[in-house]
């Protein structure tokens, strides 16, 4: 009986996940066809697991910030991790090699929220992170 | 009782598959929660952008390919042998791990082993809701030994 119940629960979960995925694809196709982009330019998203797994969540570990308090649908805290970006240059004088470090900038979060709908928060990279770490906006 | 026994046997076999790899077994169980959010430095040089932990560099080169570096040696992530969750050998693409957003911690069992836990790259939630990530274990050479690097796709705590 219990097995049947968990099987039913699993199927329901599978169905709701498939439904969510289907909705996400429809929304993405709609945005790409020139319609309204509900994610507001996001490349990343998170569901409830960011709240339930907050202290061990990879995004929280590198820093998250809400660009609008309304995006904080799970009532979680912003996290900041200050990263000082240094340019390292090798200098050789005779047989001696030294490394000179020069600060070129700093950022304290990697993800910034763009929107929140239903049970999903949407994110994009902090532009300062993209610039300093020479990243593309989606990888 | 029977269920507990079955679970114990299952856990034994699954964990053995990871532990069978000498070095990466010293980094499990893996968790992003092991590191405290502290200020850190990120470096940029002619080879790429990287973080450093106990003299082990991890980051991406100027072509956006992940790498691990110790001393003068740089090893591309695509060249590291990985095991998947079932213990089968797999190789990851050069940008499949978001190694620039990885966390690093020392092994509890071996001081010479540095563990690098990286989320997957790409769109979406990057594997975080499935609770999986890429784990790279680096054993620094001592006494003239060779640098050992092993990888595994693991469930994270």
**Total strands of chain B:** 11
Approximate helicity band of chain B = 10-25%
Strand order of the largest sheet of chain A: 1-6-5-2
End-to-end span of chain B in angstroms?
Answer: 25 Å
Largest sheet of chain B: 6 strands, mixed
**Total DSSP helices of chain B:** 1
Q: Structural class of the helix and strand makeup of chain A?
A: alpha+beta
Number of strands of chain A: 6
Query: What does the average pLDDT of chain B come to?
Result: 85
User: Could you tell me the radius of gyration of chain B in angstroms?
Assistant: 16 Å
Evaluate the radius of gyration of chain A.
21 Å
Shape of chain A: elongated
Biggest interface and which pair forms it? A-B, 38 and 34 residues
Main beta sheet of chain A, described? 4 strands, mixed
Please tell me the overall pLDDT of chain A: 85
Provide a count of the helices of chain A.
4
Terminal CA distance of chain A:
45 Å
- Poorly predicted segments of chain B: 13-19
Please give the order of strands in the largest beta sheet of chain B.
Answer: 7-6-11-10-9-8
Give short descriptive properties of this protein.
heterodimer; A: 139 residues; alpha+beta; four-stranded mixed β-sheet; two-stranded antiparallel sheet; 4 helices; elongated; B: 157 residues; mainly beta; six-stranded mixed β-sheet; 1 helix; 11% helix
What does this structure look like?
- The complex is a heterodimer of chains A (139) and B (157).
- Chain A has 139 residues and is of the alpha+beta class.
- Chain A is 33% helix and 29% strand.
- The longest helix of chain A has 31 residues, at 2-32.
- Chain A is elongated and about 75 Å long.
- The model of chain A has no long low-confidence stretch (mean pLDDT 85).
- Chain B has one helix at 2-19, and strands at residues 40-44, 48-53, 56-61, 66-70, 73-76, 82-83, 89-90, 103-106, 113-118, 132-139, 148-155.
- Chain B is 11% helix and 36% strand.
- Chain B starts with a helix and ends with a strand.
- Chain A binds chain B through residues 43-47, 49-50, 53, 55-59, 61-63, 79-90, 101, 104, 110, 132-136, 138-139, and chain B through 31-33, 35, 37-45, 49, 62, 64, 95, 98, 100-101, 103, 119, 121-126, 128-129, 131, 133, 156-157.
- Strand 3 (83-93) of chain A pairs parallel with strand 1 of chain B.
């Amino acid at each position: 009986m219990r097995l049947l119940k968990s099987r039913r629960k699993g199927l329901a979960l599978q169905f709701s996940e498939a439904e969510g995925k289907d909705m996400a694809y429809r929304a993405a196709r709609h945005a790409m066809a020139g319609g309204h982009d509900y994610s507001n330019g996001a490349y990343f998203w998170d569901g409830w697991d960011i709240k339930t797994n907050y202290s061990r969540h990879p995004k929280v570990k590198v820093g998250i910030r809400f660009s609008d308090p309304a995006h904080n649908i799970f009532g979680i805290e912003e996290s900041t991790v200050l990263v000082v970006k240094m340019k390292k240059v090798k200098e050789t004088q005779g047989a001696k090699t030294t490394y000179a470090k020069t600060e070129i900038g700093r950022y304290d979060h990697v993800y910034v929220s763009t929107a929140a709908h239903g049970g999903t928060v949407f994110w994009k990279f902090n532009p300062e992170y993209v610039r300093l770490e020479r990243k593309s906006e989606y990888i | 009782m029977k269920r507990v026994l079955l679970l114990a046997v299952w856990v034994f076999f699954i964990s053995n598959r990871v532990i069978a790899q000498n070095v990466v077994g010293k980094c499990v169980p893996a968790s992003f929660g092991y590191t405290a959010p502290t200020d850190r430095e990120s470096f940029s040089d002619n080879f790429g952008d990287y973080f450093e932990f106990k003299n082990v560099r991890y980051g991406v080169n100027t072509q956006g390919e992940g790498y691990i570096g110790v001393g003068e040696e740089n090893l591309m992530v695509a060249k590291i042998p990985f095991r998947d969750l079932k213990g089968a050998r797999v190789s990851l693409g050069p940008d499949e791990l978001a190694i620039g957003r990885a966390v690093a911690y020392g092994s509890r069992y071996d001081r010479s082993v540095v563990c690098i836990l990286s989320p997957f790259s790409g769109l979406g939630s990057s594997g975080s809701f499935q609770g999986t990530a890429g784990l790279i274990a680096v054993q620094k050479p001592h006494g003239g030994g060779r640098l050992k690097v092993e990888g595994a796709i693991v469930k994270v705590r």
